[in-house]
Amino acid sequence: MDKLKDKFAELALPKAAQIKEYIKANGEFVLGQYNLDSVFSGEKGMIGLITETSLLDPEEGIRFRGYSIPELRDKLPKLKNGNEPLPEGVFYLMLTGELPTDEDVHDVTNNWARRAIVPKHVFNLIDSFPISAHPMTQFSAAIMALQTESEFAEAYRNGMNKKDYWEYTYEDTMNLIARLPRVAAYIYRRTYKNSDHIEPNAKLDWAGNLAHMLGYKDDGFKELMRLYMTIHSDHEGGNVSAHSTHLVGSALSDPYLSLSAGMNGLAGPLHGLANQEVIRWVLDLQKELGGGKPSKDQIKAYILKTISEGKVIPGYGHAVLRKTDPRFTAQMEFAKKHMPNDELVNIVWDIYEIAPEVLGTISKIKNPWPNVDAHSGSLLVHYGMMEYDFYTVLFGVSRALGVLASLIWDRALGLPLERPKSVTFDWIKKTIDAKKVSA
Ligand code: HAX
Q1: Residue 134 lies inside a defined structural domain of this protein
Q2: Given the CA of residue 239, which atom of ligand 1 is nearest to it?
Q3: Pocket of ligand 1, beta carbon within 6 A
Q4: How far apart are CA 256 and CA 280, in angstroms?
Q5: Ligand 1, closest atom to CA 320?
Q6: Please, what sign has the CA dihedral across residues 331, 332, 337, 341?
Q7: Domain-embedded: residue 284
Q8: Which residue's CA is the nearest one to ligand 1's atom 31?
Q9: Which of 2, 319, 346, 414 qualifies as a FRET site for 431, CA 20 to 30 Å off?
Q10: By the 8 A CB rule, do 48 and 313 touch?
């Protein structure tokens, strides 16, 4: 028996049927218009995707099924002595649209614990990489290695009916999410701790177990993982990791193939890899100054120098947001409570005072405010995780929750193969010139 699967069938399938009916009845309705600039600016602002799990407002930030980050921290179930939400809860919420009870979350924890066994060949594959391979390369490849377990792929081969797609997507999703912490921790311990691996502890919650397998005993780190895994999980459908997972899934590639594609997108420095770049940038700044805490003038000068070298300030700016990212604020609140005097955290706060002012003077930059990645690394460093090349893997474990919940919805909604039209520049020029002549 799988209570979450039953709940999805009971709540979400009728909703999916309603949505399909609505689309049928209102298919002609015009939602917006776009121009040449839209096409050449990464399709920003063009509505082209349906994503049920979350919605991003440029001024306010992300809402998961209508709940903001502060509301999630308040309302989602926590451990008895904990203060941060359990990520099991945000997954439940994204999937069903309902806030879970403590018992619902407990069921998801147990469900994932039951599914968490990683086949040996996945570890062998990870071990076959040179130790210098980037952790995201190892992570994406390990997800591909896990694909041997895909129930969706097997059922498709055996002639599954379209109406069953969502069920097999659900099964793969649950198995995959259950196994990712073990895979991530294995990569970490192999790459940085001499392959001194730590067995999972099935009594711990999903994020607590991840912290345990990574080798961090501090309860503060476990709390950080719960918050981290919750707030990084989803950012509506158009970001590169969500969009690529969805796009690849639209070919009915199974959840393993789809998530691996999404992780390859997350590994880009303009997206998830920005979290490692932030710490690299701050450490380089410190190194250049001979160590210690830089003054605000030194920070300003370093920002201007970075820009003059044709590089971006990592952790600042966003394709959609136009204010401080509430995920940054949530991490700042966590830091104020747990580590207010940490030097690196204080540097991150000083940068927050300076960077928006400096970036705000550069007219082409649409958003001078910090995003989620500006803060996360400093929290990890505080607990001793200095190996910043690994940070994006943590982001990836979390992001799996949102993009895979969405993939289940994609299959439940029967969304088709995605295939936007592309044209050549010549085609555009001819079309626009012809319109000008006839005007
Ligand atoms: N530092 C310097 N220049 C910046 C900048 C920054 N932080 N943010 C934007 N710009 C520049 C762009 O590079 C672009 O310059 P060109 O026209 O010369 O190419 C110009 O300002 C306009 O960019 P924009 O419209 O404001 O921003 P985009 O939507 O094109 O890009 C990015 C959004 C997040 C990619 C961008 O702000 C950036 O590169 N930020 C730094 C990297 C980063 O933090 N990425 C993580 C984003 C959040 C995320 O996905 N996390 O996973």
Answers
A1: yes
A2: 50
A3: 239, 270-272, 274, 307, 312-319, 364-367, 371-373
A4: 31
A5: 29
A6: positive
A7: no
A8: 319
A9: 319
A10: no
Q: Which pLDDT score, from 0 to 100, does residue 439 have?
A: 82
H-only helix segments in 128-218: 135-146, 151-157, 165-192, 206-214
pLDDT in tens, 365-375: 999 999 999 99
- The residue nearest atom 13 of ligand 1, judged by CA position, is 312
Domain that holds residue 175: 108-272+393-412
- When divided into structural domains, the chain yields a total of 1
271 is catalytic: yes
C-alpha to C-alpha distance for 187 and 417, rounded to whole angstroms: 34
User: How high is the pLDDT of residue 142?
Assistant: 98
Residue keyed to tokens 């709540």:
11
Q: Whose CA is closest to atom 50 on ligand 1?
A: 271
Q: Is 370 helix (H, G, I), strand (E, B) or coil?
A: strand
Residue 373 falls in the annotated catalytic set = yes
Q: 3-state DSSP helix/strand/coil percent for the chain, to nearest 5?
A: 60, 5, 35
Of 235, 373, 375, 382, which one is the catalytic site residue?
Answer: 373
Q: Which two tokens stand for residue 424?
A: 């050549």
Q: How far is the CA of 301 from the centre of ligand 1 (A)?
A: 19
Length of the chain, in residues: 439
CA of 68 to the centre of ligand 1 (A): 24
Concerning whether 104 is annotated as a catalytic residue, the answer is no
Q: Which atom of ligand 1 is nearest to the CA of 311?
A: 2
227 within 8 A of 234, measured Cβ to Cβ: no
- In a domain, residue 83? The reply is no
Q: List the CATH number of the domain containing 261.
A: 1.10.580.10
Cα–Cα distance measured from residue 418 to residue 439, given in angstroms and rounded to the nearest whole number: 34
Catalytic residue among 212, 232, 243, 318: 318
Q: What atom of ligand 1 comes closest to residue 395's alpha carbon?
A: 52
Return the best residue to mutate from 232, 366, 369, 375 for the ligand 1 pocket (most ligand atoms within 8 A of CB).
366
In a domain, 403, yes or no: yes
Q: Which residues contact 402 (CB under 8 A, 6 or more apart)?
A: 53, 54, 94, 233, 234, 235, 242
Question: Burial level of 161, CB count in 10 A (0-12/13-18/19+)?
Answer: exposed
Given the residues 271, 338, 375, 382, the one annotated as active site = 271
The model's pTM is 0.97
Lookup: tokens for 113: 């614990």
Question: Relative to the CA of 235, which ligand 1 atom is closest?
Answer: 50
Q: Which residue has the tokens 């502060």?
A: 70
Q: Which residues of the chain have pLDDT under 50?
A: none
